[in-house]
Amino acid sequence: MANVELKKLKKVYGKDVLAIKEADVFIEDKEFVVLVGPSGCGKSTLLRMIAGLEEISGGDLYIDDARVNDVSPKDRDIAMVFQNYALYPHMTVFENMAFGLKLRKYPKAEITQRVEEAAKVLGLTPYLDRRPKEMSGGQRQRVAIGRALVRQPKVFLFDEPLSNLDAKLRVQMRIEIKRLHKQLQATMIYVTHDQIEAMTMGDKIVVLKDGIVQQVDSPMNLFNNPANKFVAGFIGSPSMNFLQGEIEKTEELEFVSGTVRFGIPNELNLHDKLSPYIGQPVTFGFRPEYLYDKAKEKSKQLSVDMDIIIDVTEPVGSEAYNYFHFKGQEDLTFCFRSDSAYDYQSNETITVGLDVARLRFFDVETENRIA
Amino acid sequence: MKQLKIQKILFYGLLLVMTLIYIGPFLFSLSISLNAEQDVFSWPIKLIPEKWTLGNYQRVWQDLPFGQWLFNSVFITLIQTVTNVFFASLAGFAFARLEFPGKKILFAILLGSLMIPGIILLVPKFIILNEFYLINTYAGLTLPGLVTVVNIFLMKQFFETIPKDLEEAALIDGCSYFRIFWQIFLPVSKPALAAVAIYTFQGSWNEFMWPVIVTTTREMFTLPVGMAFLKNEFSVQWPLLMAGTILISLPTLAIFLFFQKYFVQGVASAGLKE
Amino acid sequence: MKLSAKQKEQARTAYLFIGFPLLLFSVFTFVPILFAFFISFYDWNLLIPDKPFVGLANYVELFQDKVFLVAIKNTLVYTIGVVPIQTLLALVLAFIMNQKLKGRAFFRLAFYIPAVTSSVVTSIIFVWIYSKPGLLNYLLSLIGVEGTDYLTNPSTALFAIMALNIWTTSGYFMISFLAGLQSIPQSLYEAAKIDGANQWQQFWKITVPMVRPVTYFVVVLSLIGCFQVFDQIYVMSAGGPVNSTTTMSYFTYNNAFKFFRLGYGAASAVILALIIFGATWLQKKYFPADAY
Lengths: 371, 274, 292
Hints:
The complex is a heterotrimer of chains A (371), B (274) and C (292).
Chain A lengths: L3 E10 L3 E11 L4 E5 L6 H9 L6 E6 L2 E2 L10 E4 L11 H11 L4 H15 L14 H15 L3 E5 L7 H18 L2 E6 L2 H7 L2 E6 L2 E6 L1 H6 L4 H6 L6 E9 L3 E5 L2 E5 L5 H5 L6 E6 L4 E3 L9 E13 L3 E7 L8 E6 L9 E7 L4 E4 L8
Parallel strand pairs in A: 3-8, 3-9, 6-7, 7-8
Antiparallel strand pairs in A: 1-2, 1-4, 4-5, 9-10, 11-12, 11-14, 12-13, 14-20, 15-19, 16-17, 16-19, 17-18
Helix pairs in contact in A: 2-3, 2-4, 3-4
Chain B lengths: L1 H32 L21 H9 L2 H32 L5 H11 L5 H13 L6 H5 L6 H12 L3 H10 L3 H12 L1 H17 L2 H6 L8 H9 L6 H21 L1 H14 L1
Chain C lengths: L4 H36 L16 H6 L3 H32 L6 H13 L2 H12 L4 H8 L14 H26 L3 H9 L4 H12 L1 H16 L3 H6 L11 H11 L3 H25 L6
């Protein structure tokens, strides 16, 4: 039963090192929100401000509609899972989980019951008497989660909890945390630098860069309708391709960059949005996933066509990442995802299509999306 | 291959000679302390006594105020060890983990004081204690060494190695800073606490200059002062004196043997952090 | 600056934690440092209530006092003799202890024992070893050399005590070096071996430069210790014979606590402290601790 609201939240270190610039985010009750961005973007700082571990320099923070700027961490009714687990090394698993409850003077019976329940959920029952150093990384992370669970807090905070685990375990824990979220119906805020983690876990994602919130949206909206070039490039793997060029007006509007030239049909008000940029540079963005080989696949949608020259092909199982360039632009490399069965050869020239609805244009100066 | 073998024998031979140089004197004094003859200055000297006795050890207790000196030494050493562990970890925690106005300047002053040679403090410390009538008292012997700056540094450096996460997890779990210190940091700092305890014990037990200055009557002497006093007596009874020195050395030796690990760690970290 | 609740709690806790140690520090270190200079300008005698201000008279007298000048000389000889030998010996011992060898723990213990033993104990044992019918002369007689009574002979007393000091503390510093050696990556030695360096070259070209920070630390500690040598002098020779082993700290002790001339003693301690400062400053300037 808790929403979290950040109103113009600001963090300044020292006199003028701006770590977070006026973050406005509303997190609804029972929502799973992921804060994502490259290292140093301020995502952890933001989480730690919510936890009360960092002072808030400006703005307001509400948990459950109560302003908590000056409330100490222990009184915010939050629980946090740390990147390095932060388990108390001298305590057993049971004691680790029980510690917070003991400090809050819960009756012994209830503590035992809650810890045992959490242990059951997390598969830790056989390990309750062990100490952290006798456990594997994955088990430790479960204990850290268990410590948060038993508290039954209003809000769960996760600070890159999976980044110390190996790839396989990470996927497994990812699913497990998601399952817990469904089961507990609790508000969770989760920090990661891994956009795949963000995409797969979040109901809502907050993308940060240089202390500035870039976009707050659902995963699919971030992917398809990024607010700016940064979000477009950050979300999705492999990244979106960017090609700088110019909008020209002949009979219709055209995008031109060296040998690349295609007309822009007036779908989705593209002309309205792009006409202020006639004769001006724009960045054209297109995702590797949305290109398709004209000779091999058909699309029902209206599309634009481009001739590309394949450089290298990297098959990764059923699909392949094909790196290519446009004629006359050897130094710019782009990526195109295809069925690996197509088996392109180096220097092969093919024609690819891109649905008009997938065309993205960004302002060169502000990097905001035009269309 | 054969040359290598000779090299090896030579190496171990040399090592053995070195070892004899380092522990030989102790074996020698042990031998004298067990010698039944009182005239040990006969020539040529005998490395191994002809007649053995434990009588010298008995006489140490009977003929000397050894019991009193032992009590004094144990009393001072124990108090200083406990207070050093306690206060050094408190202050070390504050400097390592807490933010407070004046922290930087206070720390700089402490750091600077490490550069001050102890010799310059003797006269003023003596005058200050004299003003409070504490010369030749247990208080005078004990107070100046209740907590040392070096130990504060050792603890601070150790506490700084504990991940910040742990402190924050405890904050969120509901700990006050005092509880973080007491229930989280202290229990995980056993190696450092042991190092501080062992060093202080060693230092207090062997301390000589301060007790020499601050004690004026025999019954206030610590063991080292007492032994030095005996040595400077007119008729030195060597077997007796050697028995005393062996007895004094036992506690530190035992502690070193039992806690070797912490010793080495402590010296090592002190050596590398400078 | 306004403090938040969390900062206030931290500050409160911190002051509580450092309160007593700071009080103790003030009374027994901070105030005494300032007080020492103050006393040195007075003719401060414990037995005479009147303590007149004498300005620099104590200092002037010191530099006219033959015993003090001898004490300076002895202290310098002592330090310059002990520090380098002790440091090198400690490094060599550590180098040996760092090799794969059988019974390493035993050897390490043997070398370390003198360092953990009371200085009074080792001094007493060595008084006996150095005496005319003592162990050293016995061993020398086995190879046909006739020795002397080392501590009553003015030309050998100081050197005898220096040797004792080297013996006691080299084991202590060995442990410091050992830690330094263990942090040198094995791959460096392997690379040197492939480049064709023998053991000796490995020691001088890799070990010595790589442990330089430890060496710096060891030399500083050893300098400070040697300049203030007292226990051994007190027990073994009481400054004699004919002041040949009177060091500056023993001189200070004698004047302050035997003759009760506290002002005079304080002045000599101040000079010793200044010499120590100078020495460590020179070291820092010309042999800094730079690691690679």
